[in-house]
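Changelog-adjacent note: as of this version, every example in the card shows the full chain rather than a window. The one below runs 241 residues end to end.
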Amino acid sequence: MSSDAHALTEKWAKKAMTPTVEAFHSRVRARVAERLAASGKSWEEAVADPDLELTVDDFTAVEQEFLDTGYRFEMSAQISLEEAPEKYRAPSGIQDTGTAQTDEDGNRIVGTGANVFRVPADVVGTARLVSTVDVVLDMLTNGVPDDTIAIIDDSGGTLTAPILQSFTGVVCMGGTVRSHLGILTREYGVPCLMDARLDGLHDGDRIKVEYTKPPVDVYATENDPSARARIVKLEGTSDAE
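Full-length structure tokens:
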């Protein structure tokens, strides 16, 4: 191995935290190595040569390599899917497998999530799907209905920021407790679950969310199912309400 190749290997010896990031870094490193080898220059000479810099076309090509494999990015806002549907995976929506379990009171467990911060009591409210600009504009104009627990299908802190403080609680189907939405809800004091997995939850359902669960350890390397907060549908509520 040449000294230049060894330097590249040592500089990025540790793999990235996710396969997607690792694949992107690997492709970028490969392009840098190819350009360096073709130039015939040393690493010290190459890094100071503007003609060898990676361009927008290089990064566009790397992205296209991902897309050509059938891979699609997870969107962080609805506008991403609307403007570039060929690049982003459409939300799968809330499934209803009919196999949900029940809690100790016989209520159907319709989801679990990672609690952002702990509050003194579990929160009861009405589940309302908030995933489009139209819904946000309606709530901004006419007010957020009382006891709204917003069900968001991405980590849309930007989408919901104008009305975030008016929610009784938030359940987000994407992101992590370190996502923008998680940070905003913590600052506003609005109970929030991130990375929610929902099954059988419908718009208008009366639900109780286990926001009393200890917050998730942001540095945990393994996902402990028992650490996830539960969302239960209360008896006597209709899916069509």
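Structural remarks: The longest strand covers residues 108-115.
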